[in-house]
Amino acid sequence: MSQTVDRALSILPLLAEGPADLGQVAERLGVHKSTALRLLRTLHEHGLVYRQSDQRYRLGARLFALAQEAMENLDIREIAHPHLVKLNEACGHTVHLAVHEENEVLYIDKVDSRYPVRMYSRVGKPVAITVAAVAKLLLADLPEGERRALAEKLEYPLYTARSTPNAGAFLRELEKVREQGWATDLGGHEESINCVAAPIRGADGRVVAAMSVSAPNVVVTADELLTLLPRVRRTADAISGEYSGRTPVKDPTA
Questions:
Q1: Nearest Cα residue to 221 out of 189, 254, 196
Q2: Of 16, 23, 168, 194, whose CB is crowded by the most CB atoms within 10 A?
Q3: What is the pTM of this model?
């Protein structure tokens, strides 16, 4: 039975490469055509493959519907939270999780610092979109046309001398973030607060959320906080793997 299931499942990645006929499926599986046909018929009955008029098989609509339904029911906060807690326990600083919704970037989870001096932020509150590290990651992943249109519509309040001053500077920063795969806010929103952030990606590689570690200067310097970037990125990668189903769950703080 396990061998039959294994063979049937092996057909799906083959058809993901494009339509294939019975002979191609049998050859890839290393089985007789009659065995391949039996497997294909079973998958066809469940809507997972579809037989075209040219007698070749392709992935069925039911498979895409199941994938879409599964993605819609995934809760990124639920998946990410244990990882955020572990990171907080390891470094002691404030950890945030944020998403991009309806032209705003919102915090959807937070684990507070263990130090007495803490950040003022709360779940459900929009971030300062032109300076926040998590916002840069989420907006940098947008297609170029959408990035430009959004940048032109935004206002650029000068929270500090390090705040992003205009659309041109913002677009250059987003391009840099897009290329390097991580982001910082070093005193751009509050002079005394620094932040490093990494993206969380879905199965298609797109950024679905961003997570960050933030700390005030009185607790840790900007340079010291930047040394945590590899750990932050490992945590984000672990969340991405679990969210997308690409990799086994690993301890990112190991």
A1: 196
A2: 194
A3: 0.71
